[in-house]
Amino acid sequence: MIKPNKPKTKDKILSVAIRMFNEAGIQGITSRHIAAEMGISHGNLDYHYHTKEDLLLAIYDKMRDEASETYSVREPNSSSLQHFQHMVSGLEEFQYRYRFFNLDVLEISRSFPEVNKKIQETLILRKQQAQQLFEEFLEDGYVSFPDEDVMERILHTIRMVITFWLSQMEVISPYRFRQKGEMVRLVWNTILPYLTPAGREEYERILDLAASETAGKS
């Protein structure tokens, strides 16, 4: 029987670091904490990731690859709105998987310039991808915007919601919309007023499909 390949030390370090950062935040964990948790020497960890920024760069590359798959992988024969639902749902799960990064994104951006550089590059890419998808909404007759500025502002609003979803739950604690799935609903709420009759029909179909899938899992 072929034995499965054991995870490489570099991959183990990333997994443990992500878990510990999620639990205690970016400032609460050092490379020595991670090495001790893994039962390896600090020198061994330092051999793979010389600095905390090196470690964060590796984590961010992993994050970007996963998010890119969410943006690009599309179910066969799915409509543009259905792909949007799949994408935003995946991004909400992504938020919880890398909780620390989304909660500490401002601190990370200010403290680690190379990571910030990659974040800015990624934001430009995501803006282009989101704009292409919205242009597909228009071509499919699912939405109608008064002008291009409205569409750009909606895209910007959605990006803010996705980027700061977990942070706002920490800060604006009295509000009740805190369950998983609420981020997706809020994103949709920014688009609903601009759906055409065809878009509204497709949206209702997507909701029915999601409800059926949820019922099938229970």
From TrEMBL:
<feature type="domain" description="HTH tetR-type">
    <location>
        <begin position="7"/>
        <end position="67"/>
    </location>
</feature>
<dbReference type="InterPro" id="IPR025722">
    <property type="entry name" value="TetR"/>
</dbReference>
<feature type="DNA-binding region" description="H-T-H motif">
    <location>
        <begin position="30"/>
        <end position="49"/>
    </location>
</feature>
<dbReference type="InterPro" id="IPR050624">
    <property type="entry name" value="HTH-type_Tx_Regulator"/>
</dbReference>
<dbReference type="InterPro" id="IPR009057">
    <property type="entry name" value="Homeodomain-like_sf"/>
</dbReference>
<dbReference type="Pfam" id="PF13972">
    <property type="entry name" value="TetR"/>
</dbReference>
<protein>
    <recommendedName>
        <fullName>HTH tetR-type domain-containing protein</fullName>
    </recommendedName>
</protein>
<dbReference type="InterPro" id="IPR001647">
    <property type="entry name" value="HTH_TetR"/>
</dbReference>
<keyword id="KW-0238">DNA-binding</keyword>
<dbReference type="Pfam" id="PF00440">
    <property type="entry name" value="TetR_N"/>
</dbReference>
